[in-house]
Amino acid sequence: MLPFRSSAAVWELLQSPLRLPLRAALRGPFSGWAAPQPAGREGGFRGFCSPVQGHSDAGSETSADKRRKAGILPSLEDLLFYTIAEGQEKIPAHKFTTALKATGLRTGDPRLRECMEMLKVTVKTTSDGALDRHLFKKCVQSNIVLLTQAFRKKFVIPDFQSFCAHIDELYDKAKNMSGGQVADYIPQLARFSPDLWSVALCTVDGQRHTVGDTKVPFCLQSCVKPLKYAIAVHDHGTEYVHRFIGKEPSGLRFNKLFLNEEDKPHNPMVNAGAIVCTSLIKQGASNAEKFDYVMNFMNKLAGNEYVGFSNATFQSERESGDRNFAIGYYLKEKKCFPEGTDMTSILDFYFQLCSIEVTCESASVMAATLANGGFCPITGERVLSPEAVRNTLSLMHSCGMYDFSGQFAFHVGLPAKSGVAGGILLVVPNVMGIMCWSPPLDKLGNSVRGIQFCTDLVSLFNFHNYDNLRHFAKKHDPRREGGDQRVKSVINLLFAAYTGDVSALRRFALSSMDMEQRDYDSRTALHVAAAEGHAEVVRFLLEACKVNPVPKDRWGNTPMDEAVHFGHHDVVTILKDYHTKYSPQDSAAEKQSAEKNLDGML
């Protein structure tokens, strides 16, 4: 590129009234260089954004606002329009909504209500259903921050479509599973088809994906236990709640008549603990008031999506609840309830909460609220305190999957709670909530397909609590921006080769980076190292990383050609020696061997 040479004549040209917009533009976005100042001129243009003494930030913002109003700096709405329009003068409304759905947002998202309502009204006023820049700006301006984040891929899962494709594959794999028995201790559960299978997820940014029978209502059953525990802690605090309930896994069946050494239930996820936890909610109120209170909480957790109640299930649970009545009387004998508690009334309330209905979609928002620290992702409302969420996730992790809790914590490593209706409420903290539902259960009372899906999910993605986010290259990290990360990876690799930084290359190799990555000219790190004459880098790439010694760039040049051209004879010698040992047909086997023994080789 030719160097830019400015002069006083150019400065005078910029002073011309006809060039004012150009000069203003040069003063705005391109602050990396400054025009020359004629002698005696003070207080002119300053480069690199260093503030003028006495010049306030408010003044700069005002200046930027003026430029934006003058049309020199585009607004966020304009930038979004040009991004979606792709050179066209108008955007069809369906194109905008399709692009929006690709980011993971739904047109029914409560945060986008104003935008969608305005879009419906505006489209009716157009003959072709398309929006020009002015109409588009009118529609999106109320939600521009959220929409800009979505289209700039600034959500927790940037490449949401690719992630959803992987989820669909895991769903299909689990769908083909057979085995397990549908719970039949009450007729309402026994009526569910064993073929029902659904997965729904909601990220902490409100990105949604569903697959399968996600609109079929089912009862939460034991999946309600962590939610009512969270409500109790939210209302009363940790110290008060755990005067009555322990925090340890019991090591026994969930419905055992057994207490810990302090005569307290072991944890809130077993029936005894859940019954005591129920007694802590809205003490002194009637069951009707308590139920309304909890239902209001559930609606907030679900972002006002479907939450219902199955009276038939409630009646059946109460009629067949002898074991729970036995637990209740045992708890009463051991004085486990707060003073003045009516045990039979509490058991009725307990059965009511087990009979709350959700769909996979609404339950995934509940899980996402837990993943998001108590804020509902699709409404932005704080529902639970951080303390309540932290405690709930901790107990879900250690006690949430009946007698399978230890195995699940070991293999999946995420907080979860299963229910006898076939649901598994899974939380990936700070990322997303997932609800899996399939009625067939294994011998421990967990959904067969749900367990398989959760296990496969953590095998594919590095969501396990103890997965190393930097060095576990065999797993996908959907939180990373794929394209940007690949570009950074190539830049870092080639720059390390250019500077001769063997220690950086060693780190890249140990983190399983592809050491044969190419730039846009198809040049590899070996090309760059050979051209620069870094013999140690060349030797490391060839001997430790087993890279191909004869890759060709877009002009057909190999690393040997580069070394010869620039007169690096020591590099030429290394490359020649390695050429005699290298055979392309064995390169794959050698690379596999190198990966296994890389630590020793380094």
TrEMBL record:
<dbReference type="InterPro" id="IPR041541">
    <property type="entry name" value="Glutaminase_EF-hand"/>
</dbReference>
<keyword id="KW-0040">ANK repeat</keyword>
<dbReference type="GO" id="GO:0006543">
    <property type="term" value="P:L-glutamine catabolic process"/>
</dbReference>
<feature type="repeat" description="ANK">
    <location>
        <begin position="521"/>
        <end position="543"/>
    </location>
</feature>
<dbReference type="Pfam" id="PF17959">
    <property type="entry name" value="EF-hand_14"/>
</dbReference>
<protein>
    <recommendedName>
        <fullName>glutaminase</fullName>
        <ecNumber>3.5.1.2</ecNumber>
    </recommendedName>
</protein>
<dbReference type="GO" id="GO:0006537">
    <property type="term" value="P:glutamate biosynthetic process"/>
</dbReference>
<comment type="similarity">
    <text>Belongs to the glutaminase family.</text>
</comment>
<keyword id="KW-0378">Hydrolase</keyword>
<keyword id="KW-0677">Repeat</keyword>
<keyword id="KW-0007">Acetylation</keyword>
<dbReference type="InterPro" id="IPR015868">
    <property type="entry name" value="Glutaminase"/>
</dbReference>
<dbReference type="Pfam" id="PF04960">
    <property type="entry name" value="Glutaminase"/>
</dbReference>
<dbReference type="InterPro" id="IPR002110">
    <property type="entry name" value="Ankyrin_rpt"/>
</dbReference>
<dbReference type="InterPro" id="IPR012338">
    <property type="entry name" value="Beta-lactam/transpept-like"/>
</dbReference>
<keyword id="KW-0809">Transit peptide</keyword>
<feature type="domain" description="Glutaminase EF-hand">
    <location>
        <begin position="77"/>
        <end position="158"/>
    </location>
</feature>
<dbReference type="GO" id="GO:0004359">
    <property type="term" value="F:glutaminase activity"/>
</dbReference>
<dbReference type="Pfam" id="PF12796">
    <property type="entry name" value="Ank_2"/>
</dbReference>
<dbReference type="InterPro" id="IPR036770">
    <property type="entry name" value="Ankyrin_rpt-contain_sf"/>
</dbReference>
<keyword id="KW-0496">Mitochondrion</keyword>
<dbReference type="GO" id="GO:0005739">
    <property type="term" value="C:mitochondrion"/>
</dbReference>
